[in-house]
Amino acid sequence: ACAHNPTGMDPSIEQWKQISETVKKQKLLPFFDCAYQGFASGNAPKDAEAMRLFVEDGHNIALVQSFSKNFGLYGQRIGALSIVGATEEEATSVVSQMKLCIRPMYSNPPRHGARLVSTILSDPKLTSDFIDQCKGMADRINEMRLVLRTRLEDAGSTRSWEHITKQIGMFAYSGLSKEEVMLMKEKHHIYCTADGRISMAGVTSGNVDYIAASIHDVTK
Length: 220
Hints:
Blueprint: H1 13-26, E1 31-34, H2 49-56, E2 61-66, E3 79-84, H3 88-105, H4 112-121, H5 124-154, H6 162-166, E4 171-173, H7 178-188, E5 197-199, H8 208-219
Parallel strand pairs: 1-2
Antiparallel strand pairs: 2-3, 4-5
Helix pairs in contact: 1-2, 5-8, 7-8
């Protein structure tokens, strides 16, 4: 739904409108995965605009959300499933079916993390603080994107690294090949997925120079 993992590329609102029209023509149920709300634009409410658009367009939607990353509660594995139905009767039927699915899977989810999220989002002041802190995290990640790109360009890399700053969210497709990823792992002990996806949340002012130098070394 926003800050797409792993590509870091989101549809524009105009593209979402086209997607909405196509989904409606095909009579499909839109299913949104929203795991990084607040990390796309830096504005958590704005990052939900695609879902709001679909509801305004008259779609019934299913939305799965994770609060593990944007609330800094990764070990709690906090999530929610929200379904917008056409009628109250339909909503009641969906809840009944979901309970049948949940019962044999985990029966009762852990409450600690969920209570923390509920407490914060039920309080206007805490919600405002959460939105501000999401922006702070998003801004820091974007700053690291710019610094990483700048360091690579300053090192004299012949490759284009503009995609790093065009992408958004926690992850970046670096463009590294599988062989380059393995070389960086073995030679510099920097780890990313085999397809070259980098966790930008792990890039800091303390390690960005080393990361840039290592990427430059394996891509020369």
